Amino acid sequence: MEKFQTLHTTGRPLPLENIDTDQIIPARFLKATTREGFGENLFCDWRYNADGSPKADFVLNDARYTGSILVAGKNFGCGSSREHAAWALYDAGFRTVISSYFADIFRGNALNTGLLPLQVSDEVLARLLAAIEENPQLELVVDLPSQTLAVPAWGETFSFAIDGYKKECLINGYDDIDFLVNQKSAIEAFEKQRAWTW
Amino acid sequence: MPSTLFDKIWDAHVVRSIEGLDVVYIDRHLIHEVTSPQAFDEIAARNLPLFRPSQILATADHNVPTLHQDQPIQEPLSRLQVEKLTENCEKYGIELYGLGHPRQGIVHIIGPELGLTQPGLTMVCGDSHTSTHGAFGAVAFGIGTSQVAQVMASQCLLLSRPKRMRISVEGELRPGVTAKDLILYVISQLGTGGATGHFVEYAGSAVRSLSMEGRMTICNMSIEMGARGGLIAPDATTFAYVEGRPFAPKSAAWNDAVAYWQTLYSDADATFETEYTYQAADITPMITYGTNPGMGIPLTGHVPSEVPASEAESFDKSLKYMGFERGESLLGKQIDYVFIGSCTNARIEDLRAVAAYVQGKQKADHVAAFIVPGSKQVEQQAIAEGIDKIFAAAGFELREPGCSACLAMNEDKIPAGKYCVATSNRNFEGRQGPGSRTLLASPLVAAITAVQGRIVDITQYLN
């Protein structure tokens, strides 16, 4: 996993609520056996017509928006547990998704992929979506060590929450496997004392 | 200190805690062909052994064809995924119930029917409907592929403890109202993100009176309101279902197990962060009209006319996709397809309910009706009971087991623009194929819709 520290970029607005992982990456693309290459089919059915031509009105096809932050409506990533959704966003160049809340499994998958799920209030989300649509060049600055999202044009900085352990993992590019494998003796001791053996 | 059912099981599985996170021991790990290959690659790249391969069970279900399973899979990418699963299971010594095996089937159908799913266990799978196993009083939940690799490497996950929610449904369900209607009703009340961050315990007399199959349908759809998982306290119904199944404890171990399982309930004064209570009498047969499972209404109801301004854009996009209008009734709408299957409703009880209704009747000419059993065992049971002949006579096609048109990874797709009444769990845009329009309902509603060819008030058509 790549390290994540700070991000100076612009946002791409997708102001729909309850965006499910079937939209992020439809099931028919889950037949790959590696993690790479999902980006070209990110939001496939919203992004392309049936003949493969791009839909002009979809945000990823709008040349005005170029940043690596997706700003999306609340309850982002609901539905299927497919980690391919986080891989597709990452593969397409996104490093952060801002929403006013995330589905639990997607949040965990994003953190395990190096993609930061950044939760703001409904009010801040609405302001961001409106401001980005008005000015696609609106600068956004994510600083993970200080857990802040800054909007320099507004002169405002917002704090966001992230679990302390997962923050360290993201900053250093660590994942949970090494940590868990190092718990081997504690896990074996646990197995010996557990009450159920059937 | 009083404790919830969830906390009793969770606490019994905490190896150690660190910075507010728990290292949680996983008893059973189910894997399938679609979310495991990258996890096996991760393990191989790090040159790690599998920590407890005997606690992993594999099956092929998500992308397999539901016709001609005795022949090689035609679709090259699906075949490759199934072959990879087979190779990996051989390499690491994992039990695999692949295509053609008498125990093959949808991962959440075979766990319970084999007796692998038991009260008090922790169970995971790279599939969000793993919550199904919670019906037995297990803590079961879906995980991503990185976590699949973590469990393979350590039999543990590093997790934050979710909040607890209790949803009680009291009283007796009306005629024609099933477990599916109950859970579609609850999701319509809470919305598709209403239980995010929570683990849900289902309680109340209406839940207690359900069969294990009905309880599995309810726990299965916990994720559709955003819950980490759902569970129901085990009782005599649970024990009777588990006893005698291939992986159930035997003889003395059985008695020990039941004695332990009888301690698994929420203490009277245990606290839940969130509680809801509903009355069974308020629930009528349900159907969804939109593109998430929270968009459900009574069959005789109307699509909402008003929604909060912040939701209007998503709501109208959804109705446009479905071809419906604000405020309209769905009664009389013509249906093109009926799909009876999935980990939500493809158990033998579901097939029996459909057969009991369609016996001696015919599906409408314009409807394509197909039934995909949840497992090889369900299929064989249906044949043994003669249900297959009832389906054939009524014009319903009985396929071979798999996830099929629930997520349309295989050839079983609903064409663009067509309406499908489905017993599965998701009505997202394109879920059953690009442009497909899905209406979620119970097996009974699906059966009656197939015969009538349109959406009707099923209470007028009950046998």
Automatic annotation (TrEMBL), chain A:
Coiled-coil segments on the chain, per record: none
Reaction(s) catalysed (UniProt annotation): (2R,3S)-3-isopropylmalate = (2S)-2-isopropylmalate
InterPro entries: 3-IsopropMal_deHydase_ssu (IPR004431), Aconitase/3IPM_dehydase_swvl (IPR015928), AconitaseA/IPMdHydase_ssu_swvl (IPR000573), IPMI_Swivel (IPR033940), LeuD (IPR050075)
Pfam family, one: Aconitase_C
Keywords tagged on the record: Amino-acid biosynthesis, Branched-chain amino acid biosynthesis, Leucine biosynthesis, Lyase
E.C. designation(s): 4.2.1.33
GO biological process: L-leucine biosynthetic process
Cellular component per GO, a single term: 3-isopropylmalate dehydratase complex
GO molecular function, one term: 3-isopropylmalate dehydratase activity
Domain Aconitase A/isopropylmalate dehydratase small subunit swivel as annotated: residue spans: 1-122
Pathway assigned in UniProt: Amino-acid biosynthesis; L-leucine biosynthesis; L-leucine from 3-methyl-2-oxobutanoate: step 2/4
Function text: Catalyzes the isomerization between 2-isopropylmalate and 3-isopropylmalate, via the formation of 2-isopropylmaleate.
Subunit organization: Heterodimer of LeuC and LeuD.
PANTHER family: 3-ISOPROPYLMALATE DEHYDRATASE SMALL SUBUNIT (PTHR43345:SF5), 3-ISOPROPYLMALATE DEHYDRATASE SMALL SUBUNIT 2-RELATED-RELATED (PTHR43345)
Family to which this protein belongs: Belongs to the LeuD family. LeuD type 1 subfamily.
Name used for this protein in its record: 3-isopropylmalate dehydratase small subunit
Gene assigned in the entry: leuD
Automatic annotation (TrEMBL), chain B:
Keywords attached to this entry: 4Fe-4S, Amino-acid biosynthesis, Branched-chain amino acid biosynthesis, Iron, Iron-sulfur, Leucine biosynthesis, Lyase, Metal-binding
GO annotation (BP), single: L-leucine biosynthetic process
Binding-site residues for [4Fe-4S] cluster, renumbered to this chain: 343, 403, 406
Enzyme Commission number(s) of this protein: 4.2.1.33
CDD domains listed in its UniProt record: IPMI (cd01583)
HAMAP family noted in UniProt: LeuC_type1
Family classification: Belongs to the aconitase/IPM isomerase family. LeuC type 1 subfamily.
Protein name: 3-isopropylmalate dehydratase large subunit
Organism of derivation: Hymenobacter nivis
Gene name per UniProt: leuC
